[in-house]
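REQUEST FORM: STRUCTURE PREDICTION
Request ID: SP-0412
Submitted by: Lab K.M.
Chain count: 1
Length (residues): 321
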Amino acid sequence: MTTTPTPRWGIVSTANIARGAFLPALRAAGGTAAAVAGRDLARAEQFAAENQVGRAVHGYQELIDDPGIDALYIPLPNSMHAEWTIRALRAGKPVLCEKPLTGVRADTERVLAVARETGTLLWEAFVFPFNEIMDRLRTLVSDGAIGELREIQSDFHFKVTRPENIRLSADLEGGALRDVGCYPVRLAQEFFGEHESASAAHELGGQGVDVETWGMIGYPGGRKLLLSCGMRRDRDTFSRLLGTAGQIHVTNVFHPEPSDYVALYSDGSEPAEFRPGITEPPFTAALRHINAAVSGQEEPRLLAIDTSLVTARALHDLRAP
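STATUS: Completed
RESULT:
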């Protein structure tokens, strides 16, 4: 852990998600974007200049070894997550790795083994478990607002239009399930834990990936997740939590925006809505906690060693290409 009050972050690559999601939230959370690394130094310098990052570094390993960096964000393609996360962990640098932690269950097991061996902090970038809407869902379910939660129905769809998009590459471990289907899986895990069964169907496209996947995961006691994900239709992040005495609708628990809300439909009661009035970028609450944990001000929670293997097993059993 660092003794500095504001961790100095390094970004491993100039990926679009770093520009569009990580950096706005880091600024809102009070962290410092100290450096960005690229295999092409000129491109890294341009990224740094355009996005108020302190400096550019030539090469990922140079950034990992940099003593002026306290924590690393890794938004590389899925196929590169394991190698560079392991290198960072062995260097003693806390890591926030983009989801999924890896694209293959065996690689996830390797990464988590190194995290345990080194004791270095590691988070998988499912940031929604830290947000206010997720807190409200947990409270409603635990308070029995819909009786016993029996089923979750959750979608995540969006459009990919460029044929060269890395999500369409099997070699880079892309595909709809790995990219966005993992969100409904992680949501169900929050409430149901480890799965017992899984089945899915896939529509293939791109360079050998699933462009759409739909399926079911079974959990102890007959509880289940019905999920649908894809990269061919309009954006859809709607989820329903169905219980023995009502249901909860949530428009976007994963990356909520100001217009998103939670609606409670409980037996014998008028529908009730919760609109938190989101004002921060989606990564903000997670990064605020990670900053505090890295600087020793909070006990770390929702670490990858506690959550990621359960997710990886479920994704593996859904048998995406």
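NOTES: The chain has a mean pLDDT of 96.
Reviewed by: T.R.
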